Amino acid sequence: PASDELEKALTSLKPTYCKRRCTLSEFLDFASKSPGGNITALPSTSECVDTWCIDPRGVLTLCVSKSLYEQLGLIGKRLPFKGCPEAVCAVIRIPVRQETVSVAVRAKQKAALKLWDELRENGPGKWEVLYCQAGMWTSESHEGVIVQPRICRSTDIHIPVPALAPFPDGGTEDWDEYIGDLFEWVGMACLGAQRLKANDRVNPYVAVYEVPAPSYIGDVTQIRWAAFLHQSFIKDTLDTRIDDLLRRSHLASVTDNHAFVAMTRHGCCTSPVGAIPLSLARDASFDTARDPPLRVPAINAEDSGCFILGPGQNGNFVLAESIGHWDARWG
Questions:
Q1: Strands, E assignment, 148-214
Q2: 0.85 cut: is pTM over it?
Q3: What single-letter DSSP state applies at residue 293?
Q4: How far is CA 87 from the centre of its chain?
Q5: DSSP helix/strand/coil, 61
C-alpha cells in the first residue's frame, strides 16, 4: 500500500554498479587485488554456454561446453541433469584470492583463462563485465552507473489485509489456498491489472476475480529497480521496509495498521550461480565450505522470489520462490 514516507526513503537509496570491457584474465587480476574484496561480477552477454560469474564469496565459476572444458584442462564438476542441453557440460570453480591456492595451481588456472581469452580473440572478443563492490570507484577503464528507480502508482484498488498465520501443523489446504491467492494479488498488482480496480465492471463470463478477504480500497505504489544490484542494496531495501512497518504499526489509522510490503526479485538466469547457501553462524554469512547448487544457465530459465512482510510488530512473513528446470535447488 502507498506510503509517502516509505516511497521517499526507498527512492533515496542509490544502488550503483560498474561496467568494464576486458579479458577474463584481466578482470580476475583486478578482482584479486581489489581492496575489501566482496566483489560480484558477471558478463553482460546473454550467452548461456561458455560463461562465468564471480559470487560474493570470492569464487569465480565457469560454465563451459565439453570442447572448452577439455581445452582448459582444469578439474570441474559435470552437470548431473538428464535431458539438459548437451552444449553445457561442466562447471569449474576458481578462488579469486591468490593466497587461497598454491603457486602451481594458480599458474595453471591463469594459463587456462589466458587460453580462453585467446580463443575469443577471433570471435566475441573481450567481455563487457558488470560488477558491484562496496566502495566502488570509477576510472577511464571503468564506467559507473547509478540505477534510477521506476515508480508506478495505482489508485482506488482492492487491497487485501494479509493474515500471515504460521504454517499449520494439521491440514494445510486452506492455508495453501489463501497464501496462493495472496501471492496472486501481488503479481496482479505488479502488472497493474484492471481486475483490482474498485470500479472494475468486467463481464463475469469473461473473467472473474476476487481479492483475498478481508480487503479495503486504497492506493498502491510500486518501485522497481531493473539492473545489476549488489546484495547490500537488497538488505538496505528490506531494512527500510521493516522500519517503516514498525513505525506505522503504532499509528491509529486503520489502513496504516493494515500496511504490508511485498518484495519481488528476479535472478540473472544466464549466471551459473543462483542461490548461495548460508552458514549456521549468527551473522548469517555465506557458507564458504559448501558449493552453491548446480544449475544450467538459460535465457528462458526461471529464478524469482516474492517476500511478503505482514502488518504489525510480530514480524510474520511468507516467502515463495519459483525455480526453473535443471536447477539442483530442487534437490
A1: 150-160
A2: yes
A3: P
A4: 25
A5: strand
As given in the structure block, the three cell numbers for residue 264 are 519481488
pLDDT tens per residue, range 220-235: 999 999 999 988 898 8
**The residue to which cell 497464501 is assigned:** 179
Distances (CA, A) of 319 to 112, 167, 191, 322, 329: 41, 12, 19, 10, 15
Contact 136, 144 (CB under 8 A): yes
Residues 188, 193, 194: CA angle, nearest 5 degrees: 145
Give the lowest-confidence range in 203-212, 247-256, 320-329. 247-256
The torsion defined by the Cα of 66, 69, 75 and 80, in degrees rounded to 10, comes to -30
Report the distance separating Cα 267 and Cα 62, nearest Å. Answer: 18
Helix (H, G, I), strand (E, B) or coil at 321: strand
Tracing cell 565439453 back to the chain, one arrives at 66
Distance between alpha carbon 192 and the CA centroid of its chain, in Å?
A: 22
Residues in the chain: 331
Query: What DSSP string runs through 214-281?
Result: SEEEEEEEEEE--S---HHHHHHHHHHHHHHHHHHTTSS-HHHHT--EEEEEE--TTSS----PBPSS
Q: Nearest CA to 213 among 273, 158, 134, 259?
A: 158
